[in-house]
Predict the 3D structure of the following.
Amino acid sequence: MDMSISSGGGFWQRLISRDGYTSVSNIFVMEWAAVLRDIVIGLLIAGAVAAWVPDTFWRQLFLTGHPLAAQLWGPLIGPVISLLSFVCSIGNAPLAAVLWNGGISFGGVVAFIFADLIIIPILVIYRKYYGTKMMLALLGIFYATMVAGGYIIEFTFGGLGLVPADRTAKVTDTGITWNYTTILNIIFLLLAAALVIRFFRSGSAPMLKMMGGSPDGQQYTRNHSEVPPHRDAQPAQQSLQAQISDHQNKIACHQWGMAPAPTVRSRPRRGWRWGSSRPRGATSTTRSRARVRRSS
């Protein structure tokens, strides 16, 4: 959906304007709404894996006793673990830290982070929009690319001596301490609260209902509003763009105090059949003319 600012002026003038404040709040809330669930689920999965899965399992899975085999195996198994983790976006970073501590190679953990595009929920979205064949093609292409990228990172960084030697990555801090990070957190929490308040006061809350929906529900999903559906997929895009445009019109009218423009819908004329070349009354008129000719 379009959140650009149409008012004139320079960058800072548009940023501190009323429209700029509203646009920034919309983008801030929508982006956080898109990744918040993944971050929470990622932290939960990372904590559960770190607590319940023993280190011996990871060392055996990642072949830590064989350095060369571990380097070759890591980029292959990393995307597979990501595919089964059901966590995308930044939510896979905590789990990547757990895998790194468990002994996965440097290229393997990089391939694992790359593989957030082939988790099962996203594969289901690919199938609904593009069909099963294209979904499998995307899965194969993405997996091969991620494995190749993992190998390049593994041997390039290893050859330059840039691979970290210690495996003590921290998922979260164990406690709260008063330092510069705490001060920055307080400042940005206040700024975030101001943006959230502006988001709801500007009448943009209904946009949240359009996020995370499936094509069956004719809801808005990120960056798919202009993608034509596959012929085998279920139709969902016919009225999607119209719904988004109508919602943006309502938001603009709410901000400026104007009444929304009425929706114009085409309807057939009375007595006319769709797909026919003449009105319904054409047959009766022809019969009347035939009777007149017979009587004369």
